[in-house]
Fold:
Amino acid sequence: MKDHSQRKVGMVSLGCAKNLVDAEIMLGDAVSHGFAVTSSPEEADVLIVNTCGFIDSAKQESIDAILELHRDRQTEKRAHQKLVVSGCMAQRFSSELAREIPEIDAIVGLDQVGDIGTLLQNLVESDSTQSPLNLVARAASRYIPDYDTPRFRLTPSHSAYLKIAEGCNHPCSFCVIPRMRGRHRSRTISSVVGEVRSLVSQGVREINLISQDTTFFGMDQWEQKAGPRQPVDSQRGPTLAKLLDEIAEVEGDFWVRLLYTHPAHWSDELIEAIARNPKVVPYVDMPLQHIHEDMLLAMRRETSRQHIEDLIGRLRAGIPNLALRTTFIVGFPGETSKHFEALLQFIETTRFERLGVFTYSQEEGSRAAKMENQIPTAEKNRRMRRAMMLQQKIATEMAQNQVGKDLRVLVETPHTGRTIHDAPDVDCKVILTQDATPGEFIQAHVTDTQVYDLVAQPYPLRSAS
Ligand code: SF4
Structure:
């Protein structure tokens, strides 16, 4: 029997930032149950693989990680190790995982992230389990964290993701997330502001607000439920605009960034709230997925080309120095070359500051998976390459336009940083010609570029006064 005071837990977290927050909450609960967190799998008494179940490649990556950790624990030193599987794939395929990979010791769902500590204690106490403990109680989760939910943060100390809501009410035909993460449910404004205060007091300089549909924040708490095309109106209840105004009141020098917004729930009041609050950076992440009317309809995006183009116009007019990030899916069933050319044309004329392109993934259980006219993989990849090549040209030009400018930079490592226009993990970086202190804001003079990245000479930030 192992000595419990040494219990250690290790975590492999895959997928998106929302899943990463779940991993941080699981580790937070483990720590509050006496575990220490280790980054070396060899030392762990229990290893958690926090899976992603969004698209095929992500599922394969999750299975590979589970099998690899199981293989690696086939040594005498690690024979006692327990293997736990959590995350979206566990939520969606718990019985399949238990059947296909009986070596797993326990499978936990998205509703267990906040109270996994007891399970881990019981697991390390017990000898090997006969078959996986399958603790996934229901198809779609209902859990939502609160401001005092213990978290063991896995991001750099100066930057944090803050989950303001969970689940999604949209019917996008290619997506299975609502089936795993359930209906949209927002935290309260005071809960989110409480967590912002706590993060800022821990020295966090950048708070990335995330959920499946960040712009729908609060609207599920309105008296009369807000529908897809309902105008956003703060008189009717909590909204993202109200939340930003309250976060802006929190003392401290920090950035607030909006990720995962949906075009259907933007409002002039939200645009004004971003423009009037200096803490909220002029950066908007808004996955659009496509622009041709036929594709938007087939994808069930609950929006139209006209609406999107009007919205982009209002965003650019209402938020000075805005950087717009979006993502598109190419190769959706039935996408003709005419549809694809329309998308390329739109990318060319709109000139997004940041852009990602994904090939359509035929997701079992999604409406689109049953559609005719599925596009061959080679053609999907060819379209993605063409779209990314076009964006590379645009992004390189935009980077060159920054040369000679002075920019505020959040230092990430001694040699690199990010500007207000760069979200963590997905966007460009600033290569610093001189060392700087991670977690600090500095001024830097852009002297050159490296494709989309900037090269800049740092100089200390003059005090605000
Ligand atoms: S908005 Fe659409 S793509 Fe995004 S999580 Fe919801 S259903 Fe999925």
